[in-house]
Amino acid sequence: MGRKERFEEIYVAEYPDILAYIRRRTDSHEDAADALAETFTIAWRRLDDIPPGRRARLWLFGVARRVLANGRRAESRRGELVERLTLHLAEWAERSPQDTALDEVRQAFRRLGADDREVLALAGWEDLGSEEIAVVLGCSRGAARLRLHRARKRLAKELHAAGLDLAPYGIRALALAKEAL
Amino acid sequence: MRHDIDRLVAGIAPDPGPAPGPLARELMADITSIPVPAKPARGRKRWLFAGLAAALAVCLGQVPAAAALDIKQVGDHYEITVNDLLADPSVYQAELRARGIDITLSLAPTSPARAGAILVMNDLDRVRGPVEGGVTTIDGPGPCVRFGGCPVGLRVPVGFDRKAEIVLGREGRPGERYTMPPGIGMTGEPLHCVVFSNKTVAEIGPMLRDRGLEPEFTAYGVKGLFTPPQNWYVHDGVVSQAGGALLLVDAKPLATPKPLDASC
C-alpha cells in the first residue's frame, strides 16, 4: 500500500472519532477546525509512526490532545479551508438541539479539574479502557487506572453533594460515592 | 464491565459533530498534497517490545489445574489465578490464608460472558495504585475489548500486609439478579453490535424477547422499576439476570445515541 493510500485509509476510518474528540473539548468552532486540520497534518507527516489497527485511533487521540494543549495554529496556507470548516461546524451545532437531560451530571462534571474530566471523557465519551487511556495519556496502565478511579470517585462525590439520587445508576456508583465521603 | 459512573459520563457526551462530507475530503486532499521528506521508519523497536510483553502475558496465563486457586511465586510477587470458579469462597480464603495473604475473595453473580472477570472493589487506592507494593491484575493475552481490561489473575506482592477485597464474577443462577450487571451492548451480551439506544419502549420489547430477554424499566429519579409510556426512549441497558434486561428510559431521546462498540 502506498503512503497516500495508507493515510487515506486511516483518515476515512478515524475522521469521525477525531472530530468528535476535538469538538467535545473545544468551545470555539474555529479552534476545532484548526485542531482537526493540524492533527491530520501531523499524522500525514509522521505516517510511519502510526501504529496499525485500532491503535492508530489512540495515537491520533494523543496527537489531538497535544495539539489542543499547545493551542497550535494550523498553517496559514489552509486558512480558507479551515474557515469553511469552521462555518460548517457552526452550522451543524446550530441545527443540533442542546440536550438538557442529565444537566446535574453535566454541571457536576464541569466542576471537576481538567485532568479528571479528560480521563472520565476518554472512558465515557471515547469508550476507552484504562489500557487504551494509558496509551493516549502516555502514562502507565496502573497510573491510568488510578486516575480513572479517583476521577470517578470525585464525580460521584460531586453528584452526591448535588443531592442527586445515585441509586438508578447502579451499585458501583453508590459504593464510590460512599467511599468518597 | 463498564462502570456506572462511565455510563453517566457517556450520557452527557457532547454531540460528535457532522459526518465526513465533501469538506472532509477536501481537507484530506489538501493535507496529502504537502510534500513529506523521506526518512527512516521509527517506532519499530516499540512494537518489538509490545510483542515481547504479549508473549510474556501468554506465558503467565498458562497455569496447571490443581486447587481452586493457582498461587505461584514469581520473583517477589504471588501470581494468583482462579482455576475453579464454582468453588466455595471459603476454599479460596483458606488457600490465600495459607500463604498469609489477607484478601477477601467474593463472588458476584453476572452474565456467562462476564464470569471470571475480576474487580478489585474496596480500598482500591490503597491496594491497586501505581504505588509500590499494591495488588495488580494480570490481563489475559490477546486484544481486550472489555472495559476495565481483561484480568485473568492477580499479582500480589509477597508480604502484602493490607486488606483487599476482590470480587470475582460468576455465572448467575436462574432467577438470581446479577450484582455485576453487564452493559447489554457489551461483547458477548445480547445486544452486542445492535443499535438499541433511542429505540422506543415499544420497539425494544420485541428486540429483547427475540433474544430471550424480558425487559424491565427504570428512569432517572425513579426509585426501582416502573412501567414507562410506549413512546419513551431507551438510553441505556444492562443484563440484570439470566433472561432479564433492565433498561434506563427517558421521555426524550439521547441527543447523541450511544455509538456501537469499537469492535463491531
Question: Can you walk me through this structure?
Answer:
- The complex is a heterodimer of chains A (181) and B (264).
- Chain A is mostly helical and 181 residues long.
- Chain A has helices at 3-23, 29-45, 55-70, 79-95, 103-110, 114-124, 130-137, 141-161, 171-180.
- In chain A, helix 3 (55-70) packs across helix 7 (130-137) and helix 7 crosses helix 8.
- In chain A, 43% of the residues are buried.
- The mean pLDDT of chain A is 85.
- Chain B is α+β, with helices and mostly antiparallel strands and 264 residues long.
- Chain B contains six helices and ten strands, in the order αααββαββαβββαβββ.
- Chain B has helices spanning 4-11, 22-32, 44-61, 89-98, 124-128, 201-210; strands spanning 69-74, 77-82, 103-110, 118-122, 136-139, 151-157, 164-171, 214-218, 233-241, 244-250.
- In chain B, strands 1-2-6-5 form a four-stranded antiparallel beta sheet. A three-stranded mixed beta sheet of chain B has the order 3-7-4. Chain B has a three-stranded mixed beta sheet with strand order 8-10-9, covered by helices on one side.
- Chain B is flat.
- Residues 39-66 and 121-131 of chain B have low confidence and may be disordered.
What is the tally of beta strands of chain A?
0
For the largest beta-sheet of chain B, the strand count, sense and barrel status come to: 4 strands, antiparallel
Strand content of chain A: under 5%
The helix fraction of chain B, in percent, is: 10-25%
Radius of gyration of chain A over all CA atoms, rounded: 18 Å
Characterize the quaternary organization of these chains: heterodimer
Tell me the span between the first and last alpha carbons of chain B.
Answer: 17 Å
Q: How are strands sequenced across the largest beta sheet of chain B?
A: 1-2-6-5
**Most extensive interface between two protein chains, with residue counts:** A-B, 75 and 69 residues
Provide the structure class of chain B: alpha+beta
- Mean of pLDDT of chain B: 74
- In what range is the share of β-strand residues of chain B? 15-25%
Structural class of chain A: mainly alpha
Q: Report the major sheet of chain A.
A: none
